[in-house]
Amino acid sequence: MQIVKNVAAMQQLALKWRRAGKKISFVPTLGYLHDGHISLVHEARKRVGRSGRVVVSIYVNPTQFGPAEDLSKYPRDLKRDLKMCRAAGVDVVFTPGDAEMYPELVASRHAVPAGFSTYVVEEALSKTMEGAARLTHFRGVTTIVAKLFNLVQPDVAVFGQKDYQQAAIIKRMAADLNFPLKIIVASTCRERDGLAMSSRNKYLDAEQRAQAVILFHALNAAKAAVKIKAFPAKRLKTDLKEFIAAAPLARLDYVEFFDPETLRPVTQVKRGVHMALAIFFGKTRLIDNARL
Ligand code: PAF
After folding, report:
1. Closest Cα to atom 6, ligand 1: which residue?
2. How far is the CA of 121 from the centre of ligand 1 (A)?
């Protein structure tokens, strides 16, 4: 397994592979890998076979974190990440530093890098849910993912369904900006009790961790409800707020019901509608989603 830190070296390697007819499969990550990420790596390998190349990027992207968010405290363990990537058969881990990705990065209040002034902004799908709760988040995500696509030159890129809105926005960006690649959205990996795997689960204390499964239970409760009949979204939200209140450490940020393609909110919730929710446990914010 090769470790590449330099952007020019990554791009040259990718272009060399492409000239040699190798297919490239890509898994972008913020690092602090868990089994959910490794399942994306396996999916990436499946798409290009043994003759293809699998690249994982590990980069804690400052532009997708808001001023009050956990950028400096975001968990990092590169040594462990590299070990996991090696064991999963990754060909290249791309780990650029901030100076490579955003020249002259200044850690200002809004994490706005000087020496870098071009952003990719998706306008239709990124205003609700995570986009409403984290105002500049998706601008940071689309910008870094566009940069990574240009550097890694993938034929296939794999994202997790846990970040459903992110995956939809990246699909739209790739279509709108004619990136010649296929986006795969792989299903969410869960802990034994159903909690979606996330690097942020590490922040939870034992009591919070025990109650965090309420996200999964709320999704299941909504699924069970709409199996029987359709509900007005307002009514189901009220019922779910009560349901979530059974976990006293949970502070609901949002619960939304929306069309799975357009992400537009629906007023009537029935089977096939998508549900997403975000819940704080202390300062830790967890998200999850499912098709009802
Ligand atoms: O989902 C993530 O881990 C990040 O948002 C991504 C796609 C790696 C961009 O930094």
Report:
1. 29
2. 15
Q: Other C-beta atoms within 10 Å of 203: how many?
A: 19
**What is the maximal distance between C-alpha atoms in the chain?**
58
Domains of the chain, with CATH numbers? 2-186 (3.40.50.620), 199-291 (3.30.1300.10)
Residue keyed to tokens 């968010």: 69
Which residue from 33, 64, 69 has its CB within 8 A of the most atoms of ligand 1, so it is best to mutate? 64
Residue 64 CA, ligand 1 centroid: distance in Å: 9
- CA-60 nearest atom, ligand 1: 10
- Residues 277, 202: Cα–Cα separation, whole Å: 19
Tokens 């500049």 correspond to 136
**Total count of residues recorded for the chain:** 292
Which residues, judged by CB distance below 6 Å to any ligand atom, belong to the binding site of ligand 1? 28-30, 61, 64, 141, 144-145, 163, 166
Distance 58 CA to ligand 1 centre (A): 9
pLDDT in tens, 20-38: 999 999 999 999 999 999 9
First-last CA distance in the chain: 41
Q: What is the pLDDT of residues 207-262, one digit of tens each?
A: 999 999 999 999 999 999 999 999 999 999 999 999 999 999 999 999 999 999 99
> What is residue 31's DSSP assignment?
S
Tell me the C-alpha distance between 289 and 101, whole Å: 31
CA 235 – ligand 1 centroid, Å: 33
User: What CA–CA distance (Å, rounded) separates 133 from 110?
Assistant: 15
Q: Alpha-carbon distance 172 to 9, whole Å?
A: 28
CA–CA separation, 26 and 97 (whole Å):
18
The structure tokens listed for 31 are: 């690092």
Q: What is the DSSP string of 105-128?
A: ----TT-PPTT--------SSSSS
